[in-house]
Specification:
The complex is a heterodimer of chains A (246) and B (452). Chain A is of the alpha/beta class and 246 residues long. Chain A has a single domain, classed as Rossmann fold, CATH 3.40.50.300. Chain A is built from 8 helices and 11 strands. In chain A, helix 5 packs parallel to helix 6. The longest helix of chain A has 15 residues. Chain A is globular. By secondary structure, chain B is α+β, with helices and mostly antiparallel strands. Chain B has 4 domains: 154 residues; 102 residues, DNA polymerase, Y-family, little finger domain (Dna Ligase, domain 1, 2-Layer Sandwich), CATH 3.30.1490.100; 36 residues, no CATH class; 88 residues, no CATH class. Chain B has 12 helices and 16 strands. In chain B, the strands form 4 sheets. Chain B has a 6-stranded antiparallel β-sheet, with no helix packed on it. The N and C termini of chain B lie far apart (75 Å). Classes of the chains: A alpha/beta (246), B alpha+beta (452). Strand 5 of chain A pairs antiparallel with strand 11 of chain B.
């Protein structure tokens, strides 16, 4: 994404990559891994999720888009390396058979479920410091009242140990300052009339913060594919033929 | 052969009376444990500790390197005087003041223990130094002073063998520490325990062991009308020789203990140890990842959060979604680390454990999140609410299972429903057993999963 130097600045050309232009995406110091979503890759610096930093995913209450967003990158991480994926404080029980059907090695998940919420941050940091961990997914609910310096500590741990940390936080947190290098806001796709199964399930994704210029318009994440969609369309066909049950 | 003789310094008396706070009974053990790091041949002879280092010099970078290491980098636990010699007795004799550089024949006979009873006679003969006594005819010396003197002289001059019963470390590690001040809270015991752990590290290193279980005991003030002893058993899932890890584990356990009375003494004892197994590291730098091992992480998480809060997954053969899987306390780091061996294709059932007839429910269209307990939904005009009326998109998928279990069997029709707020949901309508009463009741709806 680097633009060619302007004619008036020949000395800049010799510096090459060392100069960052404010209108280009930031050069990423760390490694990245493709997110598996084409539209998202195009707007992320380095073309994917940062692999040694904290990325925040903000969601309104009731929405759980994290698996859909992160599953491709988690699959790739599992294929390339050995180690555990650590889930810290997920909101519900991860349903292993369904995740397995989507290709995830569920045996390699470690579910840490602290009874006190403050221990979530501690557990996430400990997991980042462990060599046998591929990535950490932490759910930090509103009630936890995470302070920026606590996130900063996690970001430093992720950076120094070279592990990706995905923090799922409530959408209210978008006004707070955060040391995350990447912040995404998920929302259900608005303005869809009821009954359109194919489109209704899409997600709207807004990049709140990235290493680069801010992104004005939100992205759309395609709805889910494969057998569920097929099942949905079959179900719809049935539903239109006969009266809805109940 | 190269010998180093050590003698605790001028403050010998005071040091012996109050040993350094290392958990060892006296200054000699502390010195011996320290010395055993550098050579396995350590012996105490009268008031000196003798180290034979010719076998391990190369490991420590030559004689000069070893001397620098001994007396500048890893200083002895107490102040010592030291001397060198080609034989043990010569090195020991040079410990006397002013003799540090004296060649062996010039050393005084007074420095040789075997010669001490005969010093006056020898002086009358004009013999005060080793060389002068050696110059005398051997047969005559043996007849007048006995064979032991001759043997000692041979040994001192390198003519006889220098053999000693070398010091060995005990089979079981046990160290006791008197705390400098009474300790009232359990977490504060860690400061004392840390010293004992340092000692343990020496012991583990020297005996080439890794520890599997440890006991930390404390003795409390007997004047209180409470139990006078307490102990904490620390057990690791795999043998560890990393005292930093043991210390963190100990800290987690101590944080949950409350003491009935102030603690005066601490004791650390090894309960179970195994020979240390070396592990190979990669030659290539990129293959080495920084950080602790996964097993250490599991132990630390379980120590603070409790075993039931740290879970790993295993499949179960059942059709009911809530029983298709079991999240159980994580203990097996090998499974978590394993590069996957075999996996059935998408939509397949977990290897070998699912019923052979295949899953009743298409797993690919199941949600990623399951509610721990199905949530009863309110119903208005026959439509479930969450909190707005749900639109049923697909279904039903009929499930009838669990009739073999005591209790009600699972008779359910699963639907994929869409909620205006939470996206796609997985709900089921409970079908009632035809034989049960209440058949005429309105159907009950439950929320069981969230697609996200």
């Amino acid at each position: 994404m680097t633009s060619s130097p302007k004619p008036g600045e020949p000395w800049l050309a010799g510096l090459g990559e060392a100069v960052w232009r404010a209108d280009a995406l930031g050069g990423t110091p760390g490694a990245t891994l493709s997110s598996g979503h084409l539209a998202l890759d195009q707007v992320l610096p380095g073309g994917g999720w940062p692999l040694d930093a904290l990325s925040e995913v903000l969601q309104p209450p009731g929405l759980h888009g994290e698996w859909r967003l992160l599953l491709p990158v988690l699959l790739r991480l599992q294929q390339t390396g050995s180690g555990a994926l650590v889930l810290v404080g997920p909101p519900h029980v991860p349903f292993g058979p369904a995740l397995q059907a989507q290709g995830l090695a569920v045996q390699r998940l470690l579910w840490v479920n602290p009874s006190q919420m403050q221990a979530c941050l501690w557990a996430a940091e400990q997991a980042l410091r462990c060599a046998g961990v591929l990535a950490v997914l932490a759910w930090l609910p509103q009630a936890l009242r995470v302070r920026p310096e606590q996130l900063r500590r996690l970001q430093l741990a992720a950076q120094s140990y070279g592990k990706p940390l995905f923090a799922m936080r409530p959408a209210q947190a978008q006004g707070e300052s955060s040391p995350a290098v990447l912040r995404l806001l998920l929302a259900p796709l608005p303005g869809q009339p009821a009954g359109q199964a194919q489109g209704s399930d899409g997600l709207q994704l807004q990049v709140l913060k990235r290493r680069g210029p801010p992104l004005a318009e939100p992205l759309q994440l395609a709805g889910r594919q494969g057998r569920l969609v097929a099942g949905l369309s079959v179900g719809l066909a049935l539903a239109t033929q006969s009266a809805p049950p109940g | 052969m190269h010998w180093i003789a050590l003698q605790p310094g001028a403050q010998n008396q005071t040091a012996a009376a109050a040993p350094p706070a290392s958990g060892l009974p006296d200054v000699w053990s502390a010195l011996a444990w320290w010395a055993l790091q550098f050579t396995p041949r350590v012996v105490r002879l009268e008031d000196a500790l003798l180290l034979e280092v010719s076998g391990s010099e190369r490991l420590w970078g030559g004689r000069a390197g070893l001397r620098q290491l001994l007396f500048e980098e890893k200083k002895p636990p107490v102040a010592v005087r030291h001397a060198y010699g080609a034989t043990s007795l010569a090195a020991k004799a040079r410990l006397l003041p002013g003799l540090l550089q004296t060649p062996a024949p010039e050393l005084p006979l007074a420095a040789l223990a075997a010669a001490r009873p005969h010093l006056a006679t020898l002086a009358a003969l004009g013999c005060t130094r080793w060389g002068e006594l050696r110059a005398l005819p051997r047969a005559g010396v043996a007849r007048r002073f006995g064979a032991p003197l001759l043997q000692a002289l041979d040994q001192a001059c390198g003519q006889g063998p220098d053999s000693y019963p070398w010091l060995l470390l005990p089979e079981v590690f046990e160290a006791r520490l008197e705390l400098a001040a009474q300790v009232e809270t359990a977490p504060a015991l860690l400061f004392g325990a840390r010293r004992l752990l340092e000692q343990l590290q020496y012991w583990l290193q020297l005996r080439q062991q890794a520890v599997l279980a440890l006991v930390l005991c404390w003795t409390m003030d007997a004047r209180r009308d409470t139990a006078s002893q307490g102990e904490l058993l620390l057990r690791c899932a795999e043998p560890s020789c990393d005292t930093a890890h043991l210390q963190r584990l100990l800290a987690e356990h101590l944080a949950r203990i409350s003491l009935p009375a102030p603690v005066l003494y601490l004791q650390l004892r090894s309960v179970e140890t195994l020979p240390r197994v070396g592990h190979s590291v990669s030659l290539l730098p990129e293959a080495q990842r920084p950080g602790d091992s996964l097993q250490q992480l599991l132990e630390r998480l379980a120590a603070r959060l409790g075993q039931p809060q740290v879970l790993q997954w295993s499949p179960r053969a059942d059709h009911r979604p809530e029983r298709m899987q079991l999240w159980q306390a994580a203990s097996n780091a090998a499974v978590l680390m394993a590069q996957e061996a075999s996996r059935s294709g998408p939509g397949g059932c977990p290897g070998g454990t699912a019923p052979s007839t295949g899953p009743a429910i298409d797993l690919a269209s199941c949600p990623a999140w399951l509610l721990a307990m199905p949530q009863r939904l309110a119903v208005r005009q026959g439509r479930p609410l969450y909190p707005d009326p749900l639109t049923l998109l697909a279904g039903p998928q009929r499930l009838e299972a669990g009739w073999w279990d005591p209790g009600p069997s699972a008779l359910r029709d699963y639907y994929v429903a869409r909620s205006s707020r939470s996206g796609l949901l997985w709900v089921y309508r409970e079908r009632l057993d035809p034989s049960s009463p209440g058949l005429d009741l309105a159907p009950r709806w439950y929320l069981h999963g969230v697609f996200g």
